[in-house]
Amino acid sequence: MTKISKKDFKDIVAGIGFLLPNICGFLAFIAGPLIISLAMAFTNWNLELHNVFKTEPIKFVGFGNFIKLLTEPDFFRYLGNTLFFMMGIPFGIGGSLCSALLLSKNFRGGSRRVWGMVIVTVMLIVSLGALVITGLGGTAMTMLICGLVGVILLSGSIGGQTIYRTLFYFPYFTAGVATFILWKKLYSPDTGPINNALKPLLNFAGPRLAAIPPWGAHLCSGILILLLAAIFIYAAWRKFLLWRDGESGTLSLLIGLVVLSTPVIFSCFWSQFKSVSFLFPALLIMVGIFIVYALLSGREHQCPLDRGMANAIVICGAAMIFIFILLGLSNVVYVLPQLASDGLEPPQWIADYYWAKPSLMLMGFWGAIGSNNMLLYLAGLSGVSQELYEAADIDGASPFQRFWHVTWPQLANVTFFILVMSVIGGLQGGFEMARTMTQGGPAGATTTLSYYIYTEGFATGRLGYASAVAWTLFALIFAVTAFNWKFGNRYTNE
Amino acid sequence: MGKLFVGILLLLILASIGTLLTQPQRQTERPVIYWKSDANPQRYDQIELFNKWLVKNGHVDKNGKPIVELRLDSANNQSKLIQAVSGVGGDIMDAKMSEFQPLGVLADISDDAKKLGFGLDATYPGLKQSLFVDEKQYAYPCNVSVAGLWCNVDAFKKYEIGVPPEIWTPKEFERIGKEFVKQANANKERREAFFCSGSQKAFAIAICRSEGLDMFNETLTQCTLDNPRYIKILKLLYKWTYEDHLFPSAAELLSMNTESGYGGSAFSQFQSGNYAMLYIGRYCLIRFREFEQKIKLSVSRIPQYDFQNMIICTRSATLYRGSKRKDLGTLFFAYLADKEYNDYIIRGSDGLPPNPQYALNNPEYLHPAKYPNEGNVHERELKWAMTIALPEPYSPYYKSTGMDWQQYAIDKYFNNLCTAEEAAAETQTRINGEIKTTIDANPHLEKQYLQACELQKKIDEYKKAGKKIPNAWIKNPFYLAYCRANGTLAEINEKGRKKQ
Question: Taking CB atoms and an 8 Å limit, are B441 and A462 in contact across chains?
Answer without folding.
Answer: yes
